[in-house]
């Protein structure tokens, strides 16, 4: 299946490297993802968006299995998601929020099986409200999620503490030498 160009362009993500526990680390600037646009294009388009997301899940699973060995068990991935840009345009659109909640509800088991750790940065008011909406759906999984607001001075040291410096992009406190293992989008 060839991923549609518009999804690749507007929903990029990347495999940044591995954390201290040898879990693959995946990153995305999710706040910039215009899910509302996809919702407004209709149900058929949402099926294609979900297929694109499944491709991402497949890639994540593959990176987990590549690191899993008899000597060192790796069963999860780590994530860093930047929510900068998530705004009222997305949050205030009922159909978009219904789609987001539906995805969390239908795929909570996949999230539970893959998520070892997740850090959310730039979580503004609308992002915080969305997190509170998914809290009853994901329940204990959210114990593996650290949510940080929009104050870069506060979350930047946390990013640097959680992830190895060489797998962090410069704009998240990493080094100029950062180069992701693989970029999708």
Automatic annotation (TrEMBL):
CDD domains in the cross-refs: SEC14 (cd00170)
Top-level taxon of origin: Eukaryota
Matches recorded under InterPro entries: CRAL-TRIO_dom (IPR001251), SEC14/CRAL-TRIO_domain (IPR051064)
Alphabetical list of Pfam families matching this protein: CRAL_TRIO (PF00650)
GO cellular component, one term: cytoplasm
Span of domain CRAL-TRIO: 3-180
Protein name as annotated: CRAL-TRIO domain-containing protein
Species of origin: Allacma fusca
């Amino acid at each position: 299946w060839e991923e549609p160009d518009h999804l690749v362009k507007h929903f990029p993500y990347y495999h940044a490297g591995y954390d201290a526990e040898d879990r693959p680390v995946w990153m995305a600037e999710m706040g910039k993802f215009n899910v509302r646009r996809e919702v407004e294009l209709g149900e058929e388009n949402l099926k294609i968006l979900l297929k694109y997301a499944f491709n991402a899940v497949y890639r994540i699973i593959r990176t987990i299995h590549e690191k899993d060995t008899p000597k060192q068990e790796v069963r999860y991935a780590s994530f860093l998601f930047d929510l900068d840009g998530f705004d009222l345009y997305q949050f205030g659109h009922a159909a978009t929020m219904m789609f987001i909640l539906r995805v969390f509800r239908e795929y909570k088991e996949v999230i539970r099986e893959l998520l070892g750790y997740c850090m959310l940065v730039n979580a503004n008011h609308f992002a915080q409200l969305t997190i509170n909406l998914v809290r009853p759906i994901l329940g204990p999984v959210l114990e593996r999620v650290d949510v940080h607001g929009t104050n870069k001075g506060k979350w930047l040291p946390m990013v640097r503490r959680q992830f190895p410096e060489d797998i962090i992009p410069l704009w998240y406190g990493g080094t100029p030498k950062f180069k992701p293992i693989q970029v999708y989008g």
